């Protein structure tokens, strides 16, 4: 069973639990994983910049950070994904994409990191972007955010 939990800075509006569950389940099941526990923390640019500096020794803003809490060799996935909603809004404006699509992309991106995919090189970035696009199409992100 895939379990999803979430927390959010009180000044921000996070996606619903059903949106998170649908996206996470789609990503993990698509990679033949049916057991996991993923926690989402939706916060500010400052929170993620602090984490980036502390754990990656980089002083910069970022939109998503993922921490795998169990070994990558384990059949289940345990992890935490931190997403900056203000950065998602900024990205959406810069790339002329709907905000909901950008948030969905960041959720997918974090999940892919938990599965061991990286985006350090140009080749890895391209592969991750292709996987993100495929998964965005498969999960029908547009319908997830309808009230």
Descriptive notes:
Strand 3 (64-68) and strand 4 (77-84) form a beta hairpin. The chain has one domain: Metalloproteases ("zincins"), catalytic domain (Collagenase (Catalytic Domain), 3-Layer(aba) Sandwich). It is an alpha/beta fold. The protein is 50% helix and 19% strand. The protein has helices at residues 17-30, 45-56, 85-94, 99-114, 122-139, 141-144; strands at residues 2-8, 36-43, 64-68, 77-84. Strands 1-2-4-3 form a 4-stranded mixed sheet, with helices on both faces.
Instruction: Report the portion of residues in β strands.
Output: 15-25%
The name of the CATH superfamily reads Metalloproteases ("zincins"), catalytic domain
Main beta sheet, described? 4 strands, mixed
Sheet with most strands: strand arrangement: 1-2-4-3
Total helical segments: 6
Indicate the CATH architecture.
Answer: 3-Layer(aba) Sandwich
Shape: globular
Under CATH at level 1, the class stands as Alpha Beta
Distance between the first and last residues' Cα: 26 Å
| Helical coverage, percent range | 40-55%
Helices and strands, in order, run as EHEHEEHHHH
| Total strands | 4
Structural domain count: 1
What are the segments in which pLDDT stays under 50 over at least 5 consecutive residues?
Answer: none
In CATH terms, what is the fold-level topology? Collagenase (Catalytic Domain)
Radius of gyration: 14 Å
Class by helix and strand content?
alpha/beta
Can you give the mean pLDDT? 93
């Amino acid at each position: 069973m895939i379990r999803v939990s979430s927390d959010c800075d009180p000044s921000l509006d996070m996606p619903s639990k059903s949106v998170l569950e649908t996206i996470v389940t789609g990503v993990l099941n698509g990679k033949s994983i049916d057991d996991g526990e993923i926690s989402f923390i939706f916060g500010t640019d400052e929170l993620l910049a602090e984490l980036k500096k502390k754990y990656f020794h980089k002083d910069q803003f970022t939109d998503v950070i993922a921490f795998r809490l169990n070994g990558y060799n384990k059949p289940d996935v345990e992890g935490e994904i931190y997403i900056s909603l203000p950065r998602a809004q900024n990205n959406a404006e810069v790339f002329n994409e709907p905000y909901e699509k950008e948030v969905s992309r960041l959720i997918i991106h974090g999940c892919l990191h938990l599965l061991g995919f990286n985006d350090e090189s140009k080749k890895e970035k391209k592969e991750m972007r292709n996987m993100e696009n495929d998964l965005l199409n498969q999960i029908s992100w547009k319908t997830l955010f309808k009230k």
